[in-house]
Design brief:
The chain is an alpha/beta fold and 388 residues long. It folds into 2 domains: 2-157 and 344-381, ATPase, nucleotide binding domain (Nucleotidyltransferase, domain 5); 170-338, Nucleotidyltransferase, domain 5 (2-Layer Sandwich). The protein has 14 helices and 12 strands. The strands form 2 sheets. Strands 1, 2, 3, 4, 5, 6 and 12 form a 7-stranded mixed sheet that branches. Strands 9-8-7-10-11 form a 5-stranded mixed sheet. The longest helix has 26 residues, at 73-98.
């Protein structure tokens, strides 16, 4: 790793990030050039962001796993291997097409289990996609399995965004508040040395689940169907009574709490798809706004939004309305307006964590993910040697 460290400290190293999010709709690849400037890691340039389709039958296997299909140990082991190969191959193909040579890769993997915060034995999480297979296919060293060190240090293991947003949004005024609308919604708050990060509840896991169930489509494109529906007050109130919304940060959640089984509980079967989707949008927006009003020192001037939910116009409008009730001066904007690709931000976060592993930078903070301070996150898979 000396070569990568020297590049980071010199003219800059090219570092990638790869993952499949909670939505499980493909493989996200981001690539950027990073440099250590004094004590601060900086993103010099974001070079690539794309989503690659799943190869062959891997998509249905991931979807079945995320939807709660029973998996024996053989199936889990094969999925761990095959996801690692797919992540690494996707990165290699992206870099080949862009004619880029990668120095380092951060691989988050595919989350298939994440505790709901009430597991009696304590938190646990599992991301599949073995780092050694990723490194072999990507032909570069890989840092992966980021969440375990935080769990071992007493943390939630999520969200980890607060440990990279300071790099991606460097130069933007504090307080910095960034909302990721992926399968789950999570929030980062940075102000000086103060850091907060927590999940606020479901986002795409609910909305895409409703679209699959009632529209026969993977998502409600731009929230067009939801925009034509009306909010069902009783369904909304019942949804917001979930115990997760009453927990105080640090907190995180996943599909075991807000997955297909929870989507099944929505509605009586007589409601229209438009009304259910409109109600789902209202729940996501209200749960975010409530948690911001309760857990942040104050509402920010701008809430920067990343993730797939930024493309859902109905959700962005509903979020703006929910926050305006609490502070009419708080603006909801895509983080594209801050110079950060909303679809590439999460991949770049894991590129940041990989670079920080190489630099030996401890990042964990108890007020973010809840883990003891100063732990370095990730494990190294050296991969095929490219250096003498």
């Amino acid at each position: 790793m000396d070569q990568v460290r020297n590049k980071l400290q010199g003219g800059g190293a090219r570092v990638g990030g790869v993952l499949s999010g909670t939505s499980g709709d493909g493989i996200d690849v981001s690539v950027g050039r990073f440099q250590l400037q004094g004590r601060h890691l900086r993103l010099i340039e974001a070079e690539v962001q794309c989503t690659r389709p799943w190869p062959s039958d891997l998509g249905p296997r991931v979807r079945a796993c995320l939807d709660g299909a029973a998996h024996d140990l053989r199936q889990t082991a094969l999925l761990h291997r095959d996801l690692g190969r797919a992540f690494g191959r996707a990165v290699w193909e992206v870099c080949r097409e862009a004619r880029l040579s990668l120095d380092l890769l951060g691989s988050h993997g595919q989350t298939v289990y994440h505790h709901d915060g009430v597991e009696p034995s304590g938190p646990a999480t599992l991301q599949l996609g073995d780092g050694d297979f990723v490194a072999q296919e990507a032909v570069c060293p890989v840092v992966s399995d980021f969440r375990q060190a935080d769990l071992a240090a007493g943390g939630e293991g999520a969200p980890l965004s607060a440990y990279g947003d300071d790099v991606l949004f460097a130069g933007h005024p504090y307080p910095l508040c960034v909302l990721n609308l992926g399968g789950m919604a999570n929030l980062t708050w940075l102000e000086g040395d103060d850091v907060l990060a927590f999940d606020t509840g479901p986002a795409g896991a609910l909305l895409d689940g409703l679209a699959r169930r009632y529209l026969g489509q993977p998502l409600d494109s731009n929230g067009a169907v939801a925009a034509g529906g009306r909010v069902l007050p009783q369904t909304l109130a019942a949804g917001l009574e979930h115990p997760f919304f009453e927990r105080l940060p640090p907190k995180s959640t996943g599909r075991d709490t807000f997955g297909e089984a929870w989507v099944d509980s929505w509605g009586t079967g007589t409601e229209s798809a438009a009304d259910l989707l409109a109600t789902g949008v209202a729940l996501v927006a209200e749960s975010v706004a409530r948690e911001m009003g309760r857990s942040l020192p104050r509402l920010p001037a701008t809430l920067w939004v990343a993730g797939g939910g930024v493309h859902n116009g109905a959700l962005m409008d509903s979020l703006q309305l929910a926050l305006a009730k609490r502070d009419p001066d708080c603006r909801v904007q895509s983080c594209a307006d801050a110079g950060v690709d909303p679809d590439g931000r999460e991949g770049l976060l894991f590129a940041v964590l990989a670079a920080r592993w190489v630099l030996g930078q401890g990042v964990t903070r108890p007020q973010a993910s809840g883990g003891a301070a100063g732990r370095v996150l990730g494990k190294l898979s050296p991969g095929p040697s490219r250096y003498p």
